[in-house]
Amino acid sequence: MKIKVLIVDDSALIRSVMKEIINSQPDMEVVGVAPDPLIARDLIKQTNPDVLTLDVEMPRMDGLDFLERLMRLRPMPVVMVSSLTERGSEVTMRALELGAVDFVTKPKLAIQSGMLEYTELITDKIRAASKAKVKAASLPATPGTPSAPGEANLPAVRNPLISSEKLIIVGASTGGTEAIKEFLVRMPSDCPAILITQHMPEGFTQSFARRLDSLCKISVKEAGHGERVLPGHAYVAPGHSHLLLGRSGANYVTQLDQRPPVNRHRPSVDVLFSSAARHAGKNAVGVILTGMGKDGAQGMLEMKNAGAYNFAQDEASCVVFGMPKEAIAAGGTHEVGALKDLSGMVLRFLAEQGTRALRV
Known about the structure:
Blueprint: E1 3-8, H1 12-23, E2 28-34, H2 37-47, E3 51-55, H3 63-73, E4 78-82, H4 86-98, E5 102-105, H5 115-131, H6 160-165, E6 167-172, H7 176-184, E7 193-198, H8 205-215, E8 219-222, E9 233-236, E10 242-248, E11 251-257, H9 269-279, E12 284-288, H10 297-305, E13 309-313, H11 323-329, E14 335-337, H12 339-359
Helix pairs in contact: 3-4, 7-12, 9-10, 10-11
Domain CheB-type methylesterase: 161-353
EC number: 3.1.1.61, 3.5.1.44
Enzyme class: hydrolase
């Protein structure tokens, strides 16, 4: 069975290019194209697509308005097609909150050499979306407000030495923007520093970090090069570089590296995890969240072998159970839990470490 795709975009040229790309794949076909959401609404009823690609900005009805109605009335996998602009990135972050599975930037039609890479990117995302667990829109969290019952009772780390010595290292891909948000909003302001690699292109990671910063008790920023890693702060890998953990004397620091993609990704989760294994060892706590592929599995195993304690998101709560599944299969994880429980699991582990340290 081929994956049935409906393309919604107000640009005839983009519709044509996307249709050619998708129909070139043996396992998918375009069952309809629409210049606006109103026509798309009728085509959805007629064609019953498996995946919808949706432009962010369109006439007659904004892409976000259509997405919000769609996810409320007929939830289905949606891949947003976004312009690489500040407004485009902000709107795309909101679309992911509303339930879109993933997004791609619009193809750079003038650069023919990049079209093969773009073809692989968008078709991979459509394949992942076709297997994704679709969830209805979620309301944005309010800073300082528990987003789940019992969050206020999560354990405190208590020991300041644990907060300053331990590090939480997080990797995610498809579905990861919302998973990372749910993980971070539960973290107390004095938690250990958190380093994050989320597969995301350049131009979007800054908006992602800014949105997280507005919702969380901790400070969240796009990582720079050579920054001292501090408790109560989270550092998001920029879309143009790998993020690594380094050392400068007694301090942990961030490092950015533009070496080639690893596992077809830059930033790569494996690169971050491997650096944490080298420089943090048993002081690292690894967390691997929803995502397509196997990026992070080998690096998480390296972390475990270096003494780190690792957690993976379970299948039931993943949008795509790819990366956690591979990490579990490789033997790199210690515990597996639902997304809503992972923050508490990590904090309880750290609290136990703190209590143990105080007894010594």
